[in-house]
Amino acid sequence: MIITTCGNSVKIAKVLAKKLHATYSPLILSSFPDGDFYLKFNVDVKGKKTVLVQSFQPHPNASLFNTIMAAETARDLGAKKIIVVAPYLAFMRQDKRFNPGEAINSKIMGKHLSVCIDNIITIDPHLHRYKSLRDVFQVSGKALTANPLIAEYIKKKIKHPVIIGPDWESYQWAEEVAGRIGAEASCLEKTRFSSRKVKVKIIKAVPLQGRNCVLIDDIISTGNTMAAAAKKAKSLGAKTITAIGIHGLFVDGVQKLYKSGITKIVTTNCIEHPTNEIDVTPLLFEELKKEKKN
Ligand code: R5P
Q1: What ranges do the domains of the chain cover?
Q2: S-S: 135 plus which of 130, 155, 197, 277, CB 3.0-4.6 Å?
Q3: Phi and psi at residue 272, in whole multiples of 5°?
């Protein structure tokens, strides 16, 4: 088995290769003088299972393009099976045409990747309107979840927590994590006016006065959802507010989150960031171990 990456997720790729006793060989990615793309494998992939470990953040568009080019090249070089491991899979939030004329990014991404890969493994993809990865990809896909790891983290670090989903889409994560540790769960309802303007109201009331609140969302992008939820929890008397994001994009930085009353921000290492405290590598290792055996 060969483990490679297009530049993101290097740490995870190296750890996986070591644990799987596989060859780690990063790709050479650069450009010709005119800006054209250049890619080179540094190891012979002929007859080998080739795993492309690549979170689609930072640089989601380039990540998709690079992954397609790498997968097509691996196929052309005779790889036996091409597996994409995308701890964070971008494009999934655009899962319908919200306004006339818009592209449905997730469908296009799924269609183009399906042509050149055999399998995709990801963690907590944004499955909201889609039921499963089968609605997006025409090849086999595995959606792993970081929920057990998040539950373990909360159990170890936070006393008598109340778990809050900042909107209905995230409540699936909040509810499951709460169930695993026997905590109460609450949910907010979000109205989104634009990419950076949201408003939340509480719809599943649980007393928050003096409580340790844990906000859980799959994605922290601009951070406005978490910030609005934190302000609401604070106004209801929360003692501490921990914001847990599976995929921490932090496109506007973390300042606004702390200003909103969040005491601590925690993320998984699906996307590398200083807030990473939950390691998802064991989930990916178990899945790739099965792939290696087959
Ligand atoms: C929404 O559908 C997701 O679950 C997140 O709530 C959303 O992506 C967060 O975005 P932002 O951080 O920009 O408010």
Answers
A1: 2-145+280-293, 147-269
A2: 130
A3: -65, 130
Ligand 1 probe mutation, 98, 170, 219, most atoms within 8 A of CB:
219
Q: In sequence order, what E strands does the chain have?
A: 2-4, 23-24, 28-31, 37-40, 49-53, 81-86, 119-123, 140-144, 161-165, 184-194, 197-204, 212-220, 240-248, 264-268, 276-278
Fold adopted by 147-269 = Rossmann fold (3.40.50)
Q: Classify strands 240-248 and 184-194 as parallel, antiparallel or unpaired.
A: unpaired
CATH code of 2-145+280-293, in short, is 3.40.50.2020
- Euclidean distance between the first and final Cα of the chain, in Å? 11
Residues of the chain with pLDDT under 50: none
Question: Against a cut of 0.70, is the pTM above it?
Answer: yes
Total residue count of the chain as it appears in this document: 294
CA of 9 to the centre of ligand 1 (A): 22
Angle of helix 105-116 relative to helix 60-76, nearest 10 degrees, comes to 20
Reported as a single tens digit per residue, the pLDDT across 7-45 is 999 999 999 999 999 999 999 999 999 999 999 999 999
